[in-house]
Specification:
The structure is a homodimer of 276-residue chains.
Chain A lengths: L6 E7 L7 H12 L3 E7 L5 H8 L5 E6 L4 H5 L4 E2 L1 H6 L4 E4 L5 E4 L2 H11 L8 E5 L3 H12 L4 E5 L3 H14 L4 E4 L9 E4 L23 E4 L8 H8 L3 E3 L1 H15 L7 H7 L4
Parallel strand pairs in A: 1-2, 1-3, 4-6, 7-8, 7-10, 8-9, 10-11, 11-12
Antiparallel strand pairs in A: 3-5, 5-6
């Protein structure tokens, strides 16, 4: 129930038609009596820098969820950037600090990490392999580093992307051991596909699953189907798996905390969401 | 239920805390399955010209409800202004035309006029007296002229305000007979208090009710109480009366039409509103 006191969380991106966040957050806010609302705002690239600034000058602006095509641009528009956002070169959450500065963070990878932790796997000291060093892969790698993994394998078809990501990671986490150039999963505790492979029916698998340790925790970012061919193959080898939408819901509590709002579990959010 | 396809009607003003429109429109949109939402946006004066422009560049912007302190400023920010808004010097509704121009109109007075008409009183050819030539009085006078009244009496403690309003009215409606300088209601078919008198318990009445014809239709803009002392006195003389909130609800169908949305009656909107 929107009223004059309702705090706005702008969902800024373009196009807006496929936005899911309003149907996840708003039913939760309603159930909990939290006087806030997520509002899709279809902002084009040329207007975005000015709009972001003016949005946060609204007296009832509470925060912004930023999505395509503004995640990269936003890193240059905020006053304070978290290490995770700086490493990944992208920002998907913005809030106004008490001192008037805009602070940006990135929670895509945090969703992956929280999902791993909640499934009982230790992140501190673990060895993790991230396949794909694009937007979501960079986000996951940065969040894994923040969570304290000891070693990160980074692989991308474009080798320089993985190498540059590795350099940015080590700049913030000097103790982290980074290796690039191989997608061989043997010896890793956590393995994640952060490429689009699996979105189309005839896509190849992102790595040689015959080399997956059965002890590995295997995650996926593709949401086109719940169990992708990659996850099916990993499960057949005995691996614990995490589906793409887990990452989506696991990150929502992180945003709620960032925005200073009462939080809950990913399962609860999934249950209250009205995505149909 | 807000989703990625939802059209936004920004409710632009400052402060927002007392806004009522979201609790009137949104329950109606929800009941009717109209994929639109009224969102309060607390915009300060210095930010307003830029924000209004950028708001209408959002791909899901549908329209704006404009309130204090932006009603006057808005007349200079739109490309096309209705005669009603031009006469009153205020604009409280903005939409984007198909050709990309911003069009502004004013429906405060339309609410009053629709209330009169729905209570069975003829406006065409009528003689109407408007006490108070401020924002709401100017709006009512402009809408009465549009509705075809033959003669308008205008009175304001500040005589020049009534005289200037009269000149603007005659510029758009040359056949209208305008008289200023008297608050004597004798001889009028429609009489409206458009001053704040009645908001405080010890306010004087806006005119000498002993001179009110019992045939007069008497309206009020004050909403502090349903039956103000002025309306009570008019009713005691046998006049038909219209309360302040009637004007509020009667104008909503006019906005819905302006925004190209399915409309309904004022009573229906009043019944579905969740103002508590």
């Amino acid at each position: 129930m929107i009223r004059g006191t309702t705090r706005l969380i702008g969902h800024l991106g373009f196009p807006t038609e496929s936005f899911k966040a309003p149907m996840i957050y708003n039913p939760y806010f309603e159930r909990e009596g939290i006087d806030a609302v997520v509002v899709p705002m279809g902002c084009r690239g040329a207007d975005y820098p000015d709009f972001l600034k003016l949005f946060f000058r609204l007296t009832n602006a509470h925060g912004a969820l930023v999505t395509m095509p503004h995640k990269v641009t936003t890193t240059g528009l905020v006053d304070v950037l978290s290490p995770t956002a700086a490493i990944a070169g992208a920002c998907n959450a913005v809030r106004l600090e008490a001192d008037g500065r805009l602070a940006g963070d990135l929670f895509d990878g945090e969703g992956f990490v929280r999902g791993v932790a909640r499934k009982g796997r230790a992140l501190a000291g673990a060895r993790a392999l991230v396949i794909g060093a694009g937007g979501v892969g960079s986000a996951i790698a940065a969040s894994l580093a923040k969570a304290g993994v000891a070693a990160l394998g980074l692989f991308d078809m474009q080798a320089s992307a993985a190498e540059e990501l590795g350099r940015r990671l080590v700049a913030y986490y000097p103790a982290l051991r980074v290796a690039t150039g191989s997608n061989d999963p043997s010896g890793f505790d956590i393995v994640v596909n952060a490429t689009p492979l699996g979105m189309k029916p005839d896509d190849p698998l992102p790595l040689d699953v015959s080399r997956l340790p059965s002890s590995a925790f295997v995650g996926e970012v593709v949401m086109a189907q719940e169990i992708t061919p990659f996850l099916a193959a990993a499960r057949a080898r005995g691996c614990t798996v995490q589906v793409g939408t887990d990452m989506l819901f696991e990150q929502i509590p992180a945003y709620l905390e960032f925005f200073g709002l009462p939080t809950t579990t990913a399962e609860d959010l999934r249950a209250v969401a009205r995505l149909a």
